[in-house]
Structure prediction request, 337 residues.
Amino acid sequence: MSLTLTLTLTRARGAGRGRGRGRDDDEDDDEGEGEMVLGLGYRVLRVLGVGLLACAIGLGHAKAQDAEGPGLEVMSFNIRYGTADDGEDSWANRRELLFDVIREHDADIIGIQEGLRFQLDELRAAVPGYTEIGVARDDGFQAGEYAAILYKTQRFALAGGGTFWFSDQPETPGSIGWGANLPRICSWGRLLDIQSRRMFFVFNVHLDHQSQESRERSAQLLVERIMARSHSDPVIVTGDFNAGEDNPAMTYLLGLGAAGSELELYDTFRVLHPDSTEVGTFNGFSGESTGPKIDAVLISEGWKVETAAIVRTSRDGRYPSDHFPVTAALLVGAREH
Prediction:
C-alpha cells in the first residue's frame, strides 16, 4: 500500500515574516505578452507553440479539475563535475553506474547540479528520452557547470524557461555576488504535463559551498522569482543547497520561524520521514550518510507526496557521485479556486 499525504495550509507560522526578493574547484516567463521575465529565457511557444499547447490542454479538458492524474517522479542529483581529479572515482570510472541509477529510477524530471556539457551529452545519449533546460554558468552558453533540468520529451511540453544568476545582476551571465567565488545559478522551466493537462514550474539550484551570505541571499532571490511567476501553477524546487536543514537559508525557504519566507516550501523527504536521523546526502565517494541533508526536492502547496527517498546505490564499493541523489513521487493535488 502506498502512503499518500496531502499538504495543507495548517503549518504553524512565526509571528513575523522576512521578505526578499554560483565552477567549483573543491566540489564540485518569458511566455506571452504581459508576463514577467524570470531570467535568461527561452522565447518559446509564441505562435505555433502556443497553438500546440492549447490543443494539448484542450484534449479532454472537460475532465474534472481536481483529478490527480498520473504520478510524477522527480530526482535531484549532483553528479560531480567530470573534470575533477578524483582518482579512482573519476567520471570515466563511475559514469556507467550513474547512468544505471538514472535508468533504474526512471524519473520524469531530473534536476542536475555540477553537470558539464560533455557529461550532459553522455548522459542523454546513454539514457535517451530526455531534453534539457538551462545554460552553463560561466558564459550563459556552454562554459562551466549547468544546473540543468532534464525532462521526458514524450510527456512534457515546455511553456517557458531560463536561467538567472545569484548575484546583484541576475540576468548577467557569469556574474558573481555576495561573497561567492564562483557563479551560482538557477535554471527554471514551466512545463505542461501532456497526460494530465496540468502545468507546473520547476526550479533547479546549486547554492554556494562557502559563503553563507550567498546562500541566504540566493534563497531570498529564489523566493522572489518564484513568487513573481506569472501563473499560480504549483512549484517544484530541486537542488544542492550546500546548507543543512537548520541553516538559515533552508529555514527561510521552508518558511520556518519568524524569519521564514512567505512562500513556504516543503521538503518532500521530511513530509514522509519527519523523524529520520541518518539523512546525510554528501558522501565524498565513501558512502558516509551521517552528515547534513544538503540535497532536496522541495514543493509548494498543490502537490501530494507518495514516496521520497535518499538513494544510496553503490557497486563494488563505488558510488555514482560524491552526493546521493534524492527522489520523490508526486501527484498534483486538487486545484484551489
User: Anything to note?
Assistant: The chain is about 20% helix and 25% strand. The radius of gyration is 19 Å. Residues 12 and 256 are 8 Å apart (CA to CA).
